[in-house]
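Complex 165.
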Amino acid sequence: MKKIAVYPGSFDPITNGHVDIIKRGLRIFDELIVLVAYNPNKKSLFSVEERIEMIEEVIRDCKNVRVDCFKGLLVEYVKGVGASVILRGLRALSDFEYEFQLALINRRLDRDVETVFLMTGYKWFYTSSTIINEAASLGGSVKGLVPEIVNQKMQEKYKSGKEKP
Ligand code: ADP
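Predicted structure with adenosine-5'-diphosphate bound:
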């Protein structure tokens, strides 16, 4: 049977840290779904549609991975697509408590769904969408931290003056 994993997140926008987790996840699982979660509690820079478009561009040459979006209970989505694993990335200690809580609640909601963590690549230890957004909004270069397509989109967004820090 195919082992399908779901990699959920905000991906606002996708960073090289996310890409690293996707590529390494693909070495473990037969299929990966990058799931852009609608989170009404988080102020976002890019719309869900824009985020999906960027991810699709980034994974264009990768096999066995696709993008989707979802509003609702994650474990229900996971079950619905025939997956059994939630893939998450771990960076600094600060990620741990939140990720621990999330994994525990998801396990409580469905014991057949396991959360699997991949430790971040050392280069991406301090890379987060939030920090990248902040730097870019102040005119800082984020080249090398995000895929080139994302770098361009961020420059366009901030240059257009629509987004202010
Ligand atoms: P969320 O809003 O759910 O935290 P994110 O898009 O910020 O969504 O992150 C999605 C997942 O990717 C989380 O598990 C997060 O810890 C992981 N992640 C984010 N940035 C990195 C990185 N630089 N290295 C490894 N994992 C990361």
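The radius of gyration is 16 Å.
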